[in-house]
Write a structure and sequence with these properties.
This is DUF3311 domain-containing protein. There is one protein chain. The protein has 79 residues and is mainly α. Helix content is 65%, strand content 0%. It has a domain at 21-69.
Length: 79
């Protein structure tokens, strides 16, 4: 497994860990523009998840292109 694939995996797993760890955000304070923490934290993760998924997709494309051309991907040798 190359380092680039590890980063891809972390990008895709991070939102799941953040949302499954309910105890970290099951509270009302601090509020943001009148919205309890519980709600704005989840909505923030929608944006973060989108960005992380986009990063993972771009890294995957880069990795696949590198494998097709036979060049090692940045950050690791070809398998």
């Amino acid at each position: 497994m190359t380092p680039i694939r590890v980063v891809i995996g972390l990008c895709l797993v991070a939102p799941f860990v953040a949302m499954l760890w309910v105890g970290s955000y099951a509270k009302t304070d601090p509020t943001f523009i009148g919205i309890p923490f519980f709600y704005w934290y989840q909505m923030l993760w929608v944006i973060i998840s989108t960005a992380l998924t986009m990063i993972a997709y771009r890294l995957w494309q880069h990795d696949q292109r590198s494998r097709r051309t036979g060049a090692p991907a940045k950050g690791g040798a070809a398998e």
